[in-house]
Amino acid sequence: MRQLNPAAPAPLLCTLAVLLRTALSVDHVPVLLWSTQRSQWNPDATLHEGHIVSAQELTVLLQPIFTQNSRNLILFLQDTLSVDDFTYLSESYGNKNPFQNVQEMLQSSPSSLVLPAVDCEAIRYLLSFLQTSGDWKLTHTTNLNFSQLELDTSKPNLLVVQLQPLVSGLNEISIQEAIAENDKIIGRLTMDLQERGIHFSVIYTAARPSRISRRTDVVWELRRQLMATEDEDSSSYAPLNMTTGNETCILFYASNFSLTANGSVLIDLTNATFVTQNVDISSSECSDVNTTLSLKYTNPVNGISSLEIR
Ligand SMILES: *[C@@H]1O[C@H](CO)[C@@H](O)[C@H](O)[C@H]1NC(C)=O
Ligand SMILES: *[C@@H]1O[C@H](CO)[C@@H](O)[C@H](O)[C@H]1NC(C)=O
Ligand SMILES: *[C@@H]1O[C@H](CO)[C@@H](O)[C@H](O)[C@H]1NC(C)=O
Ligand SMILES: *[C@@H]1O[C@H](CO)[C@@H](O)[C@H](O)[C@H]1NC(C)=O
Ligand SMILES: *[C@@H]1O[C@H](CO)[C@@H](O)[C@H](O)[C@H]1NC(C)=O
Ligand SMILES: *[C@@H]1O[C@H](CO)[C@@H](O)[C@H](O)[C@H]1NC(C)=O
Ligand SMILES: *[C@@H]1O[C@H](CO)[C@@H](O)[C@H](O)[C@H]1NC(C)=O
Q1: Could you give the CA distance from residue 277 to residue 265 in angstroms, rounded to a whole number?
Q2: Domain termination site, one of 185, 208, 231
Q3: pLDDT at residue number 281
Q4: Is 50 exceeded by the pLDDT of residue 8?
Q5: Do residues 58 and 158 both lie within one domain?
Q6: How many domains are contained in the chain?
Q7: For a substitution probing ligand 4, which of 235, 237, 256, 257 has the most ligand atoms within 8 Å of its CB?
Q8: pLDDT reported for residue 129
Q9: What confidence score (pLDDT) does residue 225 get?
Q10: Are 298 and 288 in contact, with CB atoms under 8 Å apart?
């Protein structure tokens, strides 16, 4: 299936702090994309378990949408959505899958992409980013009765559809029904456009997560489920994980982990951290108030007998 362009491996040192922070505490939402046209979402080497897509990364991932010929884009915005909704709601109601249309379209579209975790901050600026990325005719609608929808397809259209809110405090059944209703709206509109021979791309996301979702392993199961393919990551190492009890609280991943001391001494910790795991993480801390990753190395290079990075 279609995925992302591999990006150049980021220099690790400058992103270390960011990675640790994002992997831990950033609110994130899923972003689902599909298009009636083939585009360039290729297998991606840089999306790792636990990775939360930043605003800047998202702008890169969205580029194929702007470069294809028919530039109609529909943005379906829900108030809340989390990856857990897909796994939990789809499983707990048996054959009544509330995301039926969305999942079918992800699978049948010529190109699609599932980003299980995107920084909410990126969603906040998504609309203004989209607006500046094309000479769109913007239509904003909360009226979900599309029988009257007129699109002038001689120009690129950006159609923003505010889906009905999933009122918090609803019980699971009503949330499921509200999601199923939104799913029908998405299905109706996109089917209608397709029948009229109009090409378009779709972004389906939400402003906020609907539940606290810290379990990044669930996130990645979802990506596999939705995309129905599993791409083993060949270009990098399994993440170093800090687990207390059954809960993984830190996942640390990199394709290269090295630093320079005293201006010239290169200390390459990649192997020690990810291959031989010749690293002591026992001084790390995972609690509600303090999450600290401590990496202790013995004799990382000649002349340095011990090194702790935290
Ligand atoms: C939707 O539009 C159709 C045609 O204009 C109209 O008959 C119908 O009552 C509308 N439905 C709602 C819910 O507004
Ligand atoms: C964490 O590490 C343990 C032991 O090394 C491994 O079995 C487990 O699969 C790892 N979990 C993740 C999410 O990488
Ligand atoms: C960890 O998982 C095992 C098996 O799933 C379970 O029996 C145990 O209660 C769990 N421990 C904690 C602290 O959640
Ligand atoms: C990591 O990057 C440094 C500096 O670019 C390089 O010298 C080193 O060989 C790399 N290590 C690995 C394991 O790729
Ligand atoms: C650090 O670099 C300076 C100048 O390059 C050198 O004189 C000094 O010996 C180095 N110190 C260590 C501990 O390697
Ligand atoms: C890391 O390990 C690989 C294989 O074990 C080895 O070929 C490579 O030279 C090592 N790299 C460094 C920088 O130690
Ligand atoms: C967090 O935990 C680390 C490791 O145990 C400790 O060194 C540090 O002082 C703690 N920080 C705070 C703010 O409690």
Answers
A1: 22
A2: 208
A3: 93
A4: no
A5: yes
A6: 2
A7: 256
A8: 93
A9: 52
A10: no
* 169-202 pLDDT, tens digit each: 666 677 788 888 899 999 999 998 888 888 899 9
Q: Distance (Å, rounded) from C-alpha 229 to C-alpha 43?
A: 11
Tell me whether residue 130 is in a domain.
yes
Ligand 2 centre and the CA of 115: distance in Å?
Answer: 22
Task: Say what the pTM is.
Answer: 0.52
Other beta carbons within 10 Å of 184: 14
Which structural domain, as residue segments, surrounds residue 296? 240-309
Examine the domain organization and report whether 134 and 191 are in the same domain. Answer: yes
Across 240-268, average pLDDT: 84
Joined tokens for residue 33: 């994309």
Query: What single letter denotes the amino acid at residue 21?
Result: R
Which atom of ligand 4 is found nearest the CA of 257? 1
Nearest-atom index, ligand 3, CA of 246: 1
Examine the pLDDT at 81 and tell me if it is beyond 80: yes
Six-digit token string for 84: 């857990």
Which ranges constitute the DSSP H helices of the chain?
A: 12-25, 55-61, 63-67, 83-84, 90-92, 100-108, 120-124, 126-132, 172-195, 216-227, 270
Last residue of a domain, one of 167, 191, 208: 208
Whole-angstrom Cα distance, residue 257 to residue 279?
Answer: 13
Q: Whose CA is nearest to atom 10 of ligand 1?
A: 145
The residue contributing the CA closest to ligand 1 atom 3 is 147
